[in-house]
Amino acid sequence: MAGNVEVAHRVQPTSSRLTLPKLGEGFAQVVPALILILLLFNVPLVIMLGWSFYPLETPLANYEQIFTRSIYLKVIGNTFYIAALTTVACCLLGYPLCYWMWRLSPRWRLIIASIVVLTFWVSILVRTYAWIVILGNDGIVNRLLLTWGLIDSSVSFLYNQTGVIIGTTNVLLPFLVLPLFAAMMRLDRRILLAAETLGAPKGVIFWKIFFPLTLPSLAAGAILIFILTLGFFITPAILGGGRVPMIANMMDLLINRLPRWELAAAISGVLLVFTMIFFAGYQWLNNRQQAS
Amino acid sequence: MTRALLGAAGLAGSLMLGTTLAFAQVSEIRMIEAGGPSGESIEVGYIKPFTEKTGIRVVRENPAGLGKVRAMVESRNVTAPITELSSSELEQAKALDLLDPLDWDAIDPAPIYEEAIDEYGLGWQYYSTIMAWREGEKPLTSWADMWDVDNFPGARSFPDYPNYILPMALLADGVPVEELYPLDMDRAFAKLEEIKDHVAVWWEAGAQPPQLLQDNEVQYVAAWSGRVTDVEGVEYTFEQGQLDLTYFAIPKGASEEAKEAVYQLMHVMTIAENQAAAADIVSYTGPSQDLDPLLPQDRITKYPTVQQNRDVQFFIDAQWWFDNAEEVELRWQEFKLGL
Asked: How many CA atoms lie within 13 A of B52 on its CB side?
Protein backbone atom coordinates (compact mmCIF):
# COMPACT_ATOMS: atom_id res chain seq x y z
CA MET A 1 0.00 0.00 0.00
CA ALA A 2 2.88 2.36 0.77
CA GLY A 3 3.98 2.01 -2.83
CA ASN A 4 0.58 3.08 -4.09
CA VAL A 5 0.59 6.15 -1.93
CA GLU A 6 3.92 7.04 -3.46
CA VAL A 7 2.60 6.58 -6.98
CA ALA A 8 -0.36 8.75 -6.15
CA HIS A 9 1.98 11.46 -4.91
CA ARG A 10 4.12 11.35 -7.97
CA VAL A 11 1.26 11.73 -10.40
CA GLN A 12 -0.26 14.54 -8.37
CA PRO A 13 1.78 17.48 -9.78
CA THR A 14 0.61 16.86 -13.36
CA SER A 15 -3.01 17.29 -12.42
CA SER A 16 -5.00 20.29 -13.57
CA ARG A 17 -5.40 21.47 -9.99
CA LEU A 18 -1.81 22.68 -10.22
CA THR A 19 -2.28 26.44 -10.01
CA LEU A 20 -0.10 29.23 -11.34
CA PRO A 21 1.82 30.34 -8.22
CA LYS A 22 3.19 26.81 -7.79
CA LEU A 23 4.57 26.86 -11.34
CA GLY A 24 6.97 29.66 -10.40
CA GLU A 25 8.68 27.74 -7.61
CA GLY A 26 10.52 25.01 -9.50
CA PHE A 27 10.77 26.91 -12.75
CA ALA A 28 14.50 27.72 -12.42
CA GLN A 29 15.35 24.06 -12.06
CA VAL A 30 13.37 23.18 -15.17
CA VAL A 31 15.01 25.80 -17.41
CA PRO A 32 18.02 23.69 -18.55
CA ALA A 33 15.79 20.79 -19.56
CA LEU A 34 13.41 23.21 -21.22
CA ILE A 35 16.18 24.77 -23.31
CA LEU A 36 17.44 21.32 -24.27
CA ILE A 37 14.00 20.21 -25.41
CA LEU A 38 13.39 23.48 -27.26
CA LEU A 39 16.69 23.25 -29.12
CA LEU A 40 16.81 19.55 -29.83
CA PHE A 41 13.14 18.81 -30.32
CA ASN A 42 10.97 21.85 -30.98
CA VAL A 43 13.31 23.81 -33.25
CA PRO A 44 13.91 20.84 -35.61
CA LEU A 45 10.17 20.23 -35.61
CA VAL A 46 9.50 23.82 -36.67
CA ILE A 47 12.21 23.60 -39.35
CA MET A 48 10.64 20.40 -40.60
CA LEU A 49 7.23 22.06 -40.76
CA GLY A 50 8.86 24.98 -42.56
CA TRP A 51 9.90 22.50 -45.26
CA SER A 52 6.27 21.78 -45.98
CA PHE A 53 5.85 25.29 -47.43
CA TYR A 54 8.64 24.83 -50.01
CA PRO A 55 8.88 25.93 -52.75
CA LEU A 56 8.06 29.35 -51.34
CA GLU A 57 6.41 30.66 -54.53
CA THR A 58 3.56 28.22 -53.96
CA PRO A 59 3.60 27.71 -50.18
CA LEU A 60 0.41 25.68 -49.99
CA ALA A 61 1.05 23.42 -53.00
CA ASN A 62 2.02 20.42 -50.87
CA TYR A 63 -1.04 20.73 -48.67
CA GLU A 64 -3.15 21.16 -51.75
CA GLN A 65 -1.75 17.93 -53.14
CA ILE A 66 -2.61 16.06 -49.95
CA PHE A 67 -6.22 17.09 -50.19
CA THR A 68 -6.62 16.77 -53.97
CA ARG A 69 -4.91 13.41 -54.64
CA SER A 70 -7.13 11.15 -52.54
CA ILE A 71 -4.32 8.64 -51.96
CA TYR A 72 -2.72 10.48 -49.03
CA LEU A 73 -5.94 10.95 -47.09
CA LYS A 74 -6.84 7.34 -47.77
CA VAL A 75 -3.56 6.15 -46.26
CA ILE A 76 -4.08 8.44 -43.26
CA GLY A 77 -7.63 7.09 -42.96
CA ASN A 78 -6.41 3.50 -43.20
CA THR A 79 -3.85 4.21 -40.47
CA PHE A 80 -6.57 5.58 -38.19
CA TYR A 81 -8.65 2.51 -38.91
CA ILE A 82 -5.79 0.14 -37.98
CA ALA A 83 -5.11 2.25 -34.88
CA ALA A 84 -8.76 2.02 -33.85
CA LEU A 85 -8.83 -1.77 -34.29
CA THR A 86 -5.57 -2.12 -32.34
CA THR A 87 -7.02 0.01 -29.56
CA VAL A 88 -10.14 -2.14 -29.36
CA ALA A 89 -8.03 -5.33 -29.35
CA CYS A 90 -5.76 -3.96 -26.60
CA CYS A 91 -8.76 -2.93 -24.46
CA LEU A 92 -10.54 -6.26 -24.88
CA LEU A 93 -7.38 -8.18 -23.93
CA GLY A 94 -5.90 -5.70 -21.49
CA TYR A 95 -8.86 -4.92 -19.26
CA PRO A 96 -9.67 -8.54 -18.29
CA LEU A 97 -5.95 -9.19 -17.81
CA CYS A 98 -5.65 -6.24 -15.41
CA TYR A 99 -8.79 -7.22 -13.56
CA TRP A 100 -7.51 -10.76 -13.17
CA MET A 101 -4.11 -9.48 -11.95
CA TRP A 102 -5.86 -7.15 -9.50
CA ARG A 103 -7.66 -10.12 -7.92
CA LEU A 104 -4.51 -12.24 -7.54
CA SER A 105 -2.43 -12.55 -4.40
CA PRO A 106 0.42 -10.00 -4.16
CA ARG A 107 3.02 -12.65 -4.98
CA TRP A 108 1.25 -13.83 -8.18
CA ARG A 109 0.48 -10.26 -9.08
CA LEU A 110 4.21 -9.54 -9.05
CA ILE A 111 4.97 -12.59 -11.19
CA ILE A 112 2.35 -11.75 -13.81
CA ALA A 113 3.35 -8.08 -13.86
CA SER A 114 6.97 -9.15 -14.43
CA ILE A 115 5.89 -11.28 -17.38
CA VAL A 116 4.08 -8.29 -18.87
CA VAL A 117 7.14 -6.06 -18.39
CA LEU A 118 9.40 -8.78 -19.77
CA THR A 119 8.10 -8.17 -23.29
CA PHE A 120 9.78 -4.74 -23.18
CA TRP A 121 13.13 -6.49 -23.10
CA VAL A 122 12.71 -8.31 -26.39
CA SER A 123 13.33 -6.25 -29.53
CA ILE A 124 10.25 -5.34 -31.58
CA LEU A 125 11.99 -6.72 -34.64
CA VAL A 126 12.51 -10.13 -33.06
CA ARG A 127 8.96 -10.28 -31.75
CA THR A 128 7.58 -9.29 -35.14
CA TYR A 129 9.55 -11.97 -36.95
CA ALA A 130 8.54 -14.53 -34.33
CA TRP A 131 4.94 -14.15 -35.50
CA ILE A 132 6.00 -15.37 -38.94
CA VAL A 133 7.22 -18.64 -37.42
CA ILE A 134 4.06 -18.99 -35.33
CA LEU A 135 1.32 -17.80 -37.69
CA GLY A 136 2.70 -18.44 -41.20
CA ASN A 137 0.93 -20.73 -43.67
CA ASP A 138 3.38 -23.43 -42.65
CA GLY A 139 3.69 -22.15 -39.07
CA ILE A 140 3.00 -23.85 -35.75
CA VAL A 141 -0.61 -22.73 -35.38
CA ASN A 142 -1.67 -23.68 -38.90
CA ARG A 143 0.06 -27.04 -38.67
CA LEU A 144 -1.66 -27.82 -35.37
CA LEU A 145 -5.06 -26.79 -36.71
CA LEU A 146 -4.48 -28.95 -39.80
CA THR A 147 -3.42 -32.02 -37.80
CA TRP A 148 -6.42 -31.66 -35.51
CA GLY A 149 -8.61 -31.45 -38.60
CA LEU A 150 -10.11 -28.13 -37.55
CA ILE A 151 -9.35 -26.57 -40.94
CA ASP A 152 -8.91 -27.91 -44.47
CA SER A 153 -6.33 -25.43 -45.73
CA SER A 154 -4.05 -22.93 -44.00
CA VAL A 155 -5.64 -19.81 -42.54
CA SER A 156 -3.98 -16.57 -43.67
CA PHE A 157 -3.17 -14.87 -40.40
CA LEU A 158 -0.29 -12.90 -41.84
CA TYR A 159 0.36 -10.47 -44.69
CA ASN A 160 -2.99 -8.75 -44.26
CA GLN A 161 -4.76 -6.45 -41.81
CA THR A 162 -5.15 -9.24 -39.24
CA GLY A 163 -1.39 -9.81 -39.23
CA VAL A 164 -0.68 -6.13 -38.66
CA ILE A 165 -3.20 -5.87 -35.82
CA ILE A 166 -1.81 -8.99 -34.13
CA GLY A 167 1.65 -7.42 -34.34
CA THR A 168 0.69 -3.97 -33.08
CA THR A 169 -1.46 -5.38 -30.27
CA ASN A 170 1.38 -7.60 -29.14
CA VAL A 171 3.79 -4.67 -28.97
CA LEU A 172 1.39 -2.16 -27.40
CA LEU A 173 -0.52 -4.24 -24.86
CA PRO A 174 1.89 -3.43 -21.96
CA PHE A 175 1.36 0.30 -22.61
CA LEU A 176 -2.29 -0.20 -21.72
CA VAL A 177 -1.89 -2.84 -19.03
CA LEU A 178 0.70 -1.13 -16.84
CA PRO A 179 -1.07 2.24 -16.29
CA LEU A 180 -4.48 0.58 -16.09
CA PHE A 181 -3.24 -1.92 -13.51
CA ALA A 182 -1.67 0.92 -11.50
CA ALA A 183 -5.01 2.75 -11.57
CA MET A 184 -6.84 -0.36 -10.35
CA MET A 185 -4.34 -0.73 -7.52
CA ARG A 186 -4.98 2.89 -6.50
CA LEU A 187 -8.66 2.16 -6.21
CA ASP A 188 -9.89 2.23 -2.60
CA ARG A 189 -10.91 -1.35 -1.90
CA ARG A 190 -13.01 -0.23 1.05
CA ILE A 191 -15.63 1.11 -1.35
CA LEU A 192 -16.06 -2.37 -2.77
CA LEU A 193 -16.18 -3.88 0.71
CA ALA A 194 -18.85 -1.37 1.67
CA ALA A 195 -20.95 -2.37 -1.34
CA GLU A 196 -20.55 -6.01 -0.42
CA THR A 197 -21.61 -5.32 3.18
CA LEU A 198 -24.70 -3.63 1.85
CA GLY A 199 -25.52 -6.83 -0.05
CA ALA A 200 -24.72 -5.91 -3.63
CA PRO A 201 -24.16 -8.95 -5.89
CA LYS A 202 -20.73 -9.37 -7.55
CA GLY A 203 -21.96 -8.28 -10.99
CA VAL A 204 -23.49 -5.11 -9.65
CA ILE A 205 -20.31 -4.25 -7.73
CA PHE A 206 -18.27 -4.64 -10.89
CA TRP A 207 -20.53 -2.78 -13.29
CA LYS A 208 -21.77 -0.08 -10.90
CA ILE A 209 -18.57 0.64 -9.00
CA PHE A 210 -15.38 -0.98 -10.25
CA PHE A 211 -15.83 -0.47 -13.98
CA PRO A 212 -16.97 3.18 -13.83
CA LEU A 213 -14.09 4.03 -11.50
CA THR A 214 -11.47 2.48 -13.81
CA LEU A 215 -13.08 3.63 -17.06
CA PRO A 216 -11.20 6.97 -17.26
CA SER A 217 -7.89 5.09 -16.96
CA LEU A 218 -8.96 2.66 -19.65
CA ALA A 219 -9.98 5.54 -21.91
CA ALA A 220 -6.69 7.37 -21.32
CA GLY A 221 -4.75 4.16 -22.06
CA ALA A 222 -6.82 3.60 -25.18
CA ILE A 223 -5.98 7.04 -26.56
CA LEU A 224 -2.31 6.42 -25.82
CA ILE A 225 -2.44 3.14 -27.76
CA PHE A 226 -4.23 4.88 -30.61
CA ILE A 227 -1.56 7.60 -30.86
CA LEU A 228 1.31 5.12 -30.64
CA THR A 229 -0.13 2.92 -33.41
CA LEU A 230 -0.18 5.88 -35.80
CA GLY A 231 3.63 5.82 -35.99
CA PHE A 232 4.16 2.08 -36.50
CA PHE A 233 6.57 1.20 -39.29
CA ILE A 234 8.23 -2.20 -38.76
CA THR A 235 5.06 -4.15 -38.04
CA PRO A 236 3.10 -3.18 -41.16
CA ALA A 237 6.29 -3.52 -43.23
CA ILE A 238 6.89 -7.10 -42.10
CA LEU A 239 3.48 -8.51 -41.17
CA GLY A 240 1.45 -6.48 -43.67
CA GLY A 241 3.12 -8.03 -46.71
CA GLY A 242 3.02 -4.65 -48.45
CA ARG A 243 -0.79 -4.83 -48.51
CA VAL A 244 -1.55 -2.64 -45.49
CA PRO A 245 -0.44 0.92 -46.20
CA MET A 246 0.21 3.06 -43.11
CA ILE A 247 1.52 6.60 -42.75
CA ALA A 248 5.06 5.71 -41.63
CA ASN A 249 5.56 3.42 -44.63
CA MET A 250 4.31 6.12 -46.97
CA MET A 251 6.78 8.53 -45.30
CA ASP A 252 9.61 6.09 -45.94
CA LEU A 253 8.67 6.09 -49.61
CA LEU A 254 8.44 9.89 -49.78
CA ILE A 255 11.67 10.49 -47.89
CA ASN A 256 13.95 7.70 -49.08
CA ARG A 257 12.67 6.65 -52.46
CA LEU A 258 11.21 9.67 -54.24
CA PRO A 259 12.63 11.86 -52.33
CA ARG A 260 9.80 14.37 -51.76
CA TRP A 261 10.64 15.75 -48.33
CA GLU A 262 8.38 18.79 -48.73
CA LEU A 263 5.33 16.60 -49.20
CA ALA A 264 6.42 14.31 -46.37
CA ALA A 265 6.74 17.37 -44.13
CA ALA A 266 3.24 18.53 -45.08
CA ILE A 267 1.79 15.10 -44.28
CA SER A 268 3.67 15.18 -40.96
CA GLY A 269 2.04 18.54 -40.27
CA VAL A 270 -1.43 17.15 -40.93
CA LEU A 271 -0.68 14.11 -38.79
CA LEU A 272 0.69 16.31 -36.00
CA VAL A 273 -2.57 18.27 -35.87
CA PHE A 274 -4.62 15.07 -35.61
CA THR A 275 -2.31 13.61 -32.98
CA MET A 276 -2.47 16.79 -30.90
CA ILE A 277 -6.25 16.65 -30.92
CA PHE A 278 -6.11 13.08 -29.62
CA PHE A 279 -3.44 14.01 -27.10
CA ALA A 280 -5.58 16.86 -25.79
CA GLY A 281 -8.31 14.27 -25.26
CA TYR A 282 -5.86 12.05 -23.41
CA GLN A 283 -4.76 14.89 -21.12
CA TRP A 284 -8.34 15.90 -20.44
CA LEU A 285 -9.28 12.35 -19.43
CA ASN A 286 -6.11 11.98 -17.39
CA ASN A 287 -6.78 15.17 -15.46
CA ARG A 288 -10.40 14.28 -14.88
CA GLN A 289 -9.38 10.88 -13.61
CA GLN A 290 -6.85 12.30 -11.17
CA ALA A 291 -9.26 14.96 -10.03
CA SER A 292 -11.83 12.31 -9.12
CA MET B 1 76.18 20.20 -61.58
CA THR B 2 75.18 21.80 -58.31
CA ARG B 3 72.14 23.24 -59.94
CA ALA B 4 71.17 19.86 -61.32
CA LEU B 5 71.67 18.34 -57.89
CA LEU B 6 69.61 21.05 -56.30
CA GLY B 7 66.96 20.56 -58.94
CA ALA B 8 66.91 16.80 -58.35
CA ALA B 9 66.79 17.32 -54.59
CA GLY B 10 63.97 19.79 -55.05
CA LEU B 11 62.09 17.38 -57.28
CA ALA B 12 62.61 14.52 -54.86
CA GLY B 13 61.53 16.78 -52.03
CA SER B 14 58.37 17.85 -53.74
CA LEU B 15 57.65 14.26 -54.73
CA MET B 16 58.05 13.17 -51.14
CA LEU B 17 55.94 16.06 -49.99
CA GLY B 18 53.38 15.07 -52.60
CA THR B 19 53.21 11.48 -51.43
CA THR B 20 53.13 12.32 -47.73
CA LEU B 21 50.38 14.83 -48.44
CA ALA B 22 48.41 12.29 -50.41
CA PHE B 23 48.72 9.85 -47.52
CA ALA B 24 47.85 12.49 -44.96
CA GLN B 25 44.73 13.52 -46.83
CA VAL B 26 42.39 10.57 -46.52
CA SER B 27 42.98 7.42 -44.59
CA GLU B 28 39.36 6.33 -44.76
CA ILE B 29 36.32 6.86 -46.97
CA ARG B 30 32.73 5.83 -46.39
CA MET B 31 30.58 4.16 -48.99
CA ILE B 32 26.78 3.78 -49.09
CA GLU B 33 25.69 0.55 -50.78
CA ALA B 34 22.70 -1.78 -50.98
CA GLY B 35 23.91 -4.27 -48.37
CA GLY B 36 23.28 -8.00 -48.17
CA PRO B 37 25.43 -10.42 -50.20
CA SER B 38 26.02 -7.65 -52.74
CA GLY B 39 27.75 -5.61 -50.03
CA GLU B 40 29.92 -8.58 -49.08
CA SER B 41 30.93 -8.97 -52.72
CA ILE B 42 32.09 -5.33 -52.74
CA GLU B 43 34.16 -6.01 -49.63
CA VAL B 44 35.93 -9.04 -51.09
CA GLY B 45 36.09 -8.06 -54.76
CA TYR B 46 36.93 -4.36 -54.59
CA ILE B 47 37.63 -2.98 -51.14
CA LYS B 48 40.23 -5.59 -50.24
CA PRO B 49 42.47 -5.02 -53.30
CA PHE B 50 41.89 -1.24 -53.06
CA THR B 51 42.98 -1.07 -49.43
CA GLU B 52 45.99 -3.29 -50.16
CA LYS B 53 47.03 -0.97 -52.97
CA THR B 54 46.39 2.44 -51.38
CA GLY B 55 46.21 1.87 -47.62
CA ILE B 56 42.87 3.69 -47.56
CA ARG B 57 40.17 1.97 -45.54
CA VAL B 58 36.58 1.82 -46.82
CA VAL B 59 33.67 1.71 -44.39
CA ARG B 60 30.40 0.43 -45.83
CA GLU B 61 26.98 1.77 -44.82
CA ASN B 62 23.66 0.39 -46.00
CA PRO B 63 21.00 0.44 -47.29
CA ALA B 64 21.31 3.03 -50.03
CA GLY B 65 18.67 5.45 -51.22
CA LEU B 66 18.14 8.86 -52.75
CA GLY B 67 17.02 10.27 -49.38
CA LYS B 68 20.49 9.81 -47.89
CA VAL B 69 22.14 11.48 -50.88
CA ARG B 70 19.77 14.43 -50.66
CA ALA B 71 20.41 14.74 -46.91
CA MET B 72 24.19 14.81 -47.41
CA VAL B 73 24.08 17.31 -50.26
CA GLU B 74 21.61 19.70 -48.64
CA SER B 75 23.39 19.69 -45.29
CA ARG B 76 26.64 20.39 -47.18
CA ASN B 77 28.24 17.55 -45.28
CA VAL B 78 29.07 14.72 -47.65
CA THR B 79 30.05 11.97 -45.22
CA ALA B 80 30.07 9.24 -47.88
CA PRO B 81 31.77 10.35 -51.12
CA ILE B 82 30.67 7.21 -52.98
CA THR B 83 27.09 6.01 -53.05
CA GLU B 84 25.15 3.34 -54.90
CA LEU B 85 22.15 4.30 -57.05
CA SER B 86 19.83 2.24 -59.23
CA SER B 87 19.64 3.22 -62.89
CA SER B 88 16.46 5.25 -62.45
CA GLU B 89 17.73 6.79 -59.19
CA LEU B 90 20.81 7.95 -61.08
CA GLU B 91 18.61 9.83 -63.55
CA GLN B 92 16.59 11.31 -60.69
CA ALA B 93 19.73 12.37 -58.79
CA LYS B 94 21.05 14.10 -61.92
CA ALA B 95 17.79 15.98 -62.36
CA LEU B 96 17.81 17.06 -58.70
CA ASP B 97 21.43 18.23 -59.10
CA LEU B 98 22.67 15.95 -56.32
CA LEU B 99 25.80 14.60 -58.04
CA ASP B 100 29.24 15.75 -59.12
CA PRO B 101 30.41 14.61 -62.57
CA LEU B 102 33.04 11.87 -62.62
CA ASP B 103 36.55 12.49 -63.93
CA TRP B 104 36.86 9.49 -66.25
CA ASP B 105 40.51 10.35 -67.01
CA ALA B 106 41.30 9.96 -63.33
CA ILE B 107 39.35 6.70 -63.12
CA ASP B 108 41.18 5.39 -66.20
CA PRO B 109 38.88 2.37 -66.51
CA ALA B 110 39.87 -1.05 -67.82
CA PRO B 111 37.74 -2.07 -70.84
CA ILE B 112 34.08 -2.02 -69.74
CA TYR B 113 30.77 -1.95 -71.64
CA GLU B 114 29.66 1.46 -72.85
CA GLU B 115 26.42 1.56 -70.82
CA ALA B 116 28.54 1.41 -67.65
CA ILE B 117 30.24 4.73 -68.46
CA ASP B 118 28.01 7.64 -67.53
CA GLU B 119 29.01 11.25 -67.00
CA TYR B 120 27.83 10.94 -63.38
CA GLY B 121 28.03 7.24 -62.63
CA LEU B 122 30.05 4.08 -62.96
CA GLY B 123 27.80 1.13 -63.81
CA TRP B 124 29.30 -1.55 -61.65
CA GLN B 125 26.85 -4.43 -61.25
CA TYR B 126 24.27 -6.12 -63.47
CA TYR B 127 21.31 -7.80 -61.85
CA SER B 128 18.05 -9.22 -63.10
CA THR B 129 14.49 -9.46 -61.90
CA ILE B 130 13.46 -13.01 -62.73
CA MET B 131 10.86 -15.70 -62.00
CA ALA B 132 11.61 -18.30 -59.34
CA TRP B 133 9.58 -21.02 -57.65
CA ARG B 134 9.69 -23.65 -54.96
CA GLU B 135 11.24 -26.91 -56.04
CA GLY B 136 8.51 -29.34 -57.07
CA GLU B 137 6.15 -26.69 -58.44
CA LYS B 138 5.42 -26.65 -62.18
CA PRO B 139 8.23 -24.64 -63.87
CA LEU B 140 7.34 -21.30 -65.51
CA THR B 141 8.66 -20.21 -68.87
CA SER B 142 6.99 -16.80 -69.31
CA TRP B 143 5.23 -14.06 -67.37
CA ALA B 144 2.03 -15.25 -69.02
CA ASP B 145 2.56 -18.49 -67.06
CA MET B 146 3.11 -16.49 -63.88
CA TRP B 147 -0.28 -14.85 -64.42
CA ASP B 148 -1.94 -18.20 -65.24
CA VAL B 149 -3.04 -19.21 -61.74
CA ASP B 150 -5.20 -22.08 -63.02
CA ASN B 151 -2.38 -24.00 -64.65
CA PHE B 152 0.26 -22.86 -62.20
CA PRO B 153 -1.55 -22.81 -58.86
CA GLY B 154 0.02 -21.24 -55.79
CA ALA B 155 0.51 -17.96 -53.99
CA ARG B 156 2.78 -15.33 -55.54
CA SER B 157 5.13 -12.71 -54.15
CA PHE B 158 5.97 -9.68 -56.28
CA PRO B 159 8.25 -6.67 -55.71
CA ASP B 160 6.71 -3.62 -54.06
CA TYR B 161 8.50 -1.56 -56.73
CA PRO B 162 6.57 -0.69 -59.89
CA ASN B 163 9.70 -0.67 -62.08
CA TYR B 164 10.29 -4.37 -61.41
CA ILE B 165 6.74 -5.59 -62.04
CA LEU B 166 4.85 -3.26 -64.41
CA PRO B 167 6.90 -4.36 -67.48
CA MET B 168 6.22 -7.98 -66.51
CA ALA B 169 2.48 -7.34 -66.42
CA LEU B 170 2.64 -6.06 -70.00
CA LEU B 171 4.69 -9.07 -71.13
CA ALA B 172 2.10 -11.31 -69.50
CA ASP B 173 -0.58 -9.45 -71.45
CA GLY B 174 1.17 -10.25 -74.72
CA VAL B 175 3.10 -7.03 -75.43
CA PRO B 176 6.25 -7.91 -77.41
CA VAL B 177 9.53 -7.01 -75.67
CA GLU B 178 10.57 -4.51 -78.33
CA GLU B 179 7.29 -2.57 -77.86
CA LEU B 180 7.43 -2.42 -74.03
CA TYR B 181 8.54 1.21 -73.83
CA PRO B 182 6.92 3.66 -73.52
CA LEU B 183 4.99 1.59 -70.98
CA ASP B 184 1.22 1.51 -71.31
CA MET B 185 0.44 2.19 -67.64
CA ASP B 186 -3.33 1.66 -67.92
CA ARG B 187 -2.84 -1.72 -69.51
CA ALA B 188 -0.16 -2.76 -66.99
CA PHE B 189 -2.27 -1.85 -63.96
CA ALA B 190 -5.30 -3.57 -65.47
CA LYS B 191 -3.22 -6.74 -65.80
CA LEU B 192 -2.05 -6.43 -62.20
CA GLU B 193 -5.68 -6.14 -61.08
CA GLU B 194 -6.20 -9.61 -62.54
CA ILE B 195 -3.60 -11.26 -60.34
CA LYS B 196 -3.56 -9.13 -57.19
CA ASP B 197 -5.69 -11.55 -55.15
CA HIS B 198 -3.06 -14.25 -55.70
CA VAL B 199 -0.15 -12.07 -54.59
CA ALA B 200 0.26 -12.82 -50.90
CA VAL B 201 3.24 -10.57 -50.26
CA TRP B 202 4.54 -7.46 -52.01
CA TRP B 203 8.18 -7.56 -50.96
CA GLU B 204 10.50 -4.64 -50.29
CA ALA B 205 13.72 -6.37 -49.21
CA GLY B 206 15.53 -8.66 -51.66
CA ALA B 207 15.95 -11.25 -48.91
CA GLN B 208 12.19 -11.77 -48.55
CA PRO B 209 11.25 -13.80 -51.68
CA PRO B 210 13.73 -16.69 -51.13
CA GLN B 211 12.65 -16.87 -47.47
CA LEU B 212 8.97 -16.90 -48.42
CA LEU B 213 9.64 -19.77 -50.84
CA GLN B 214 11.57 -21.75 -48.25
CA ASP B 215 8.83 -21.21 -45.64
CA ASN B 216 6.28 -22.44 -48.20
CA GLU B 217 4.44 -19.18 -47.64
CA VAL B 218 4.29 -18.62 -51.40
CA GLN B 219 5.10 -20.87 -54.36
CA TYR B 220 6.06 -18.44 -57.13
CA VAL B 221 8.03 -15.18 -56.92
CA ALA B 222 9.49 -12.39 -58.99
CA ALA B 223 12.88 -11.78 -57.36
CA TRP B 224 16.33 -10.35 -57.88
CA SER B 225 18.48 -13.01 -59.50
CA GLY B 226 21.36 -12.97 -57.01
CA ARG B 227 18.93 -13.71 -54.19
CA VAL B 228 17.46 -16.88 -55.71
CA THR B 229 20.00 -18.53 -58.01
CA ASP B 230 22.09 -19.91 -55.15
CA VAL B 231 19.28 -20.95 -52.83
CA GLU B 232 18.65 -24.58 -51.93
CA GLY B 233 15.20 -25.80 -52.97
CA VAL B 234 14.53 -22.87 -55.29
CA GLU B 235 14.34 -23.07 -59.09
CA TYR B 236 14.41 -20.15 -61.51
CA THR B 237 14.54 -19.02 -65.10
CA PHE B 238 16.15 -15.99 -66.76
CA GLU B 239 13.52 -16.23 -69.50
CA GLN B 240 11.90 -12.75 -69.91
CA GLY B 241 13.95 -11.41 -67.02
CA GLN B 242 14.55 -7.67 -66.72
CA LEU B 243 18.23 -6.80 -66.82
CA ASP B 244 19.36 -3.70 -64.98
CA LEU B 245 22.62 -1.99 -64.09
CA THR B 246 23.32 -0.32 -60.76
CA TYR B 247 25.72 2.61 -60.43
CA PHE B 248 28.18 4.23 -58.07
CA ALA B 249 28.18 8.02 -58.01
CA ILE B 250 29.70 10.93 -56.08
CA PRO B 251 27.33 13.19 -54.12
CA LYS B 252 27.73 16.88 -54.93
CA GLY B 253 30.21 18.65 -52.68
CA ALA B 254 32.49 15.74 -51.79
CA SER B 255 36.04 16.95 -51.04
CA GLU B 256 38.68 16.73 -53.76
CA GLU B 257 40.84 14.44 -51.61
CA ALA B 258 37.96 12.04 -51.08
CA LYS B 259 37.19 12.13 -54.79
CA GLU B 260 40.78 11.14 -55.62
CA ALA B 261 40.36 8.08 -53.41
CA VAL B 262 36.96 7.29 -54.96
CA TYR B 263 38.42 7.42 -58.48
CA GLN B 264 41.10 4.94 -57.48
CA LEU B 265 38.44 2.67 -55.99
CA MET B 266 36.35 3.00 -59.14
CA HIS B 267 39.37 2.00 -61.21
CA VAL B 268 39.73 -1.13 -59.08
CA MET B 269 36.06 -1.87 -59.77
CA THR B 270 36.56 -1.93 -63.55
CA ILE B 271 39.19 -4.70 -63.45
CA ALA B 272 37.92 -8.08 -64.63
CA GLU B 273 39.75 -10.18 -61.99
CA ASN B 274 38.23 -8.16 -59.15
CA GLN B 275 34.78 -8.47 -60.69
CA ALA B 276 35.25 -12.23 -60.88
CA ALA B 277 36.12 -12.31 -57.16
CA ALA B 278 32.95 -10.31 -56.41
CA ALA B 279 30.85 -12.57 -58.66
CA ASP B 280 32.10 -15.51 -56.62
CA ILE B 281 30.30 -14.09 -53.55
CA VAL B 282 27.01 -13.21 -55.23
CA SER B 283 25.74 -14.16 -58.68
CA TYR B 284 25.75 -10.65 -60.08
CA THR B 285 28.27 -9.50 -62.67
CA GLY B 286 30.45 -6.46 -63.25
CA PRO B 287 30.69 -4.51 -66.53
CA SER B 288 34.10 -5.75 -67.72
CA GLN B 289 34.22 -6.99 -71.31
CA ASP B 290 36.74 -9.64 -70.27
CA LEU B 291 34.76 -11.07 -67.38
CA ASP B 292 32.93 -14.11 -68.82
CA PRO B 293 35.95 -16.47 -69.13
CA LEU B 294 36.98 -15.68 -65.53
CA LEU B 295 33.62 -16.67 -64.01
CA PRO B 296 33.40 -20.11 -62.35
CA GLN B 297 32.25 -22.33 -65.23
CA ASP B 298 30.16 -24.65 -63.05
CA ARG B 299 27.98 -21.69 -61.99
CA ILE B 300 28.00 -19.89 -65.31
CA THR B 301 24.21 -20.20 -65.87
CA LYS B 302 23.50 -18.26 -62.67
CA TYR B 303 24.95 -14.97 -63.93
CA PRO B 304 22.64 -12.39 -65.50
CA THR B 305 24.99 -11.21 -68.26
CA VAL B 306 26.43 -14.41 -69.74
CA GLN B 307 25.37 -14.64 -73.36
CA GLN B 308 22.72 -17.34 -72.96
CA ASN B 309 20.97 -15.31 -70.23
CA ARG B 310 21.47 -11.92 -71.85
CA ASP B 311 19.74 -13.20 -75.00
CA VAL B 312 16.47 -14.09 -73.27
CA GLN B 313 16.16 -10.92 -71.19
CA PHE B 314 15.32 -7.27 -71.85
CA PHE B 315 16.96 -4.10 -70.57
CA ILE B 316 15.20 -1.57 -68.34
CA ASP B 317 14.58 1.91 -69.80
CA ALA B 318 15.80 4.08 -66.92
CA GLN B 319 14.95 7.30 -68.76
CA TRP B 320 11.27 6.36 -69.04
CA TRP B 321 11.13 5.53 -65.33
CA PHE B 322 12.74 8.83 -64.49
CA ASP B 323 10.35 10.82 -66.71
CA ASN B 324 7.33 9.13 -65.16
CA ALA B 325 8.61 8.47 -61.62
CA GLU B 326 6.11 10.51 -59.68
CA GLU B 327 3.00 9.56 -61.64
CA VAL B 328 3.95 5.87 -61.47
CA GLU B 329 4.51 5.98 -57.70
CA LEU B 330 1.17 7.67 -57.10
CA ARG B 331 -0.68 5.17 -59.26
CA TRP B 332 1.26 2.35 -57.62
CA GLN B 333 0.17 3.46 -54.15
CA GLU B 334 -3.41 3.85 -55.36
CA PHE B 335 -3.29 0.34 -56.79
CA LYS B 336 -1.91 -1.03 -53.52
CA LEU B 337 -4.67 0.70 -51.55
CA GLY B 338 -7.22 -1.21 -53.58
CA LEU B 339 -5.77 -4.57 -52.48
From this structure: 9
